[in-house]
DNA sequence: GCCACCGGTGGC
DNA sequence: GCCACCGGTGGC
């Protein structure tokens, strides 16, 4: 069974609470601007959405890097959690539903599909994977 | 034959 | 030592 990352949360720069972000697109928007533009809650008074338990048997937590570019229109960024739950593989799906998994393959795709070359730039693609969150050392 | 998935490693 | 990237292959 394939496990995909399909839920996203961000931390408010002010109150430090975590907020779920409904859509991947919205999440990517926030991530692309971070850390230069910090996310803030609409209302810090409201209770946080989630409590991170890195040892939870039900939920896996991965931490994303800042500044990953927004996925180009027509493309999909797919995050597959490996069987052991420790590592995530990043794939992109092209507008033709072809999966690519390295910058080299993206470059080749652009080369082979001249008609799409204006829709995607190498700088808009990042295979940097989120990392499994670990318990902070006490 | 394809491709989802994982292992290994070069480059940092 | 880590991890982005790629090679190889088992299962279909």
Verbal overview:
- With 138 residues, the protein is an alpha+beta fold.
- The protein has two helices and eight strands, in the order βββαββββαβ.
- The protein has a four-stranded antiparallel sheet with strand order 1-5-6-7. It has a two-stranded antiparallel sheet with strand order 2-3. Strands 4-8 form a two-stranded antiparallel ribbon.
- A hairpin with a 6-residue loop joins strand 5 and strand 6.
- The chain binds a DNA duplex (12 and 12 nucleotides) through residues 2, 80, 82-84, 87, 89-91, 99, 101-105, 127-129, 131.
Topology of this protein?
Layout: E1 3-4, E2 8-11, E3 18-21, H1 24-33, E4 62-63, E5 76-81, E6 88-93, E7 99-100, H2 103-112, E8 131-132
The chain binds a DNA duplex (12 and 12 nucleotides) through strand 6 and helix 2.
Keywords summarizing the entry:
single chain; 138 residues; alpha+beta; Methyl-cpg-binding Protein 2, Chain A; 4-stranded antiparallel β-sheet; two-stranded antiparallel sheet; 2 helices; 20% strand; DNA-binding; MBD domain-containing protein
Low-confidence runs:
none
Share of residues in strands? 15-25%
CATH superfamily heading: Methyl-cpg-binding Protein 2, Chain A
- The helix count comes to 2
Helix content: 10-25%
Number of strands: 8
Gross morphology: globular
| Strand arrangement in the largest pleated sheet | 1-5-6-7
Q: What is the number of independent domains?
A: 1
CATH topology group: Methyl-cpg-binding Protein 2, Chain A
Instruction: Output the helix-strand order.
Output: EEEHEEEEHE
Which CATH class?
A: Alpha Beta
Question: Overall mean pLDDT score?
Answer: 91
CATH architecture type:
2-Layer Sandwich
The computed structural class is: alpha+beta
- What's the N-to-C terminus distance? 35 Å
Biggest β-sheet: count, sense, barrel?
A: 4 strands, antiparallel
Give the C-alpha Rg.
Answer: 17 Å
GO molecular function: DNA binding
Pfam families: MBD
Subcellular location: Nucleus
Main location: nucleus
């Amino acid at each position: 069974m394939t496990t995909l990352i399909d839920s996203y949360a961000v931390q408010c720069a002010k109150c430090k609470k975590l907020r779920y972000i409904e859509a991947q697109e919205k999440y990517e928007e926030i991530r692309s601007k971070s850390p230069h533009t910090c996310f803030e809650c609409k209302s810090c008074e409201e209770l946080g959405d989630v409590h991170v338990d890195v040892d939870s048997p039900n939920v896996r937590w991965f931490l994303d890097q800042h500044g990953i570019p927004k996925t180009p229109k027509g493309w999909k960024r797919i995050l597959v959690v490996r069987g052991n739950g420790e590592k995530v593989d990043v794939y992109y799906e092209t507008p033709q539903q072809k999966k690519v998994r390295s910058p080299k393959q993206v470059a080749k795709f652009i080369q082979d599909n001249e008609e799409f070359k204006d829709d995607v730039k190498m700088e808009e693609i990042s295979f940097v994977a989120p990392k499994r969150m670990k318990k902070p050392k006490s």
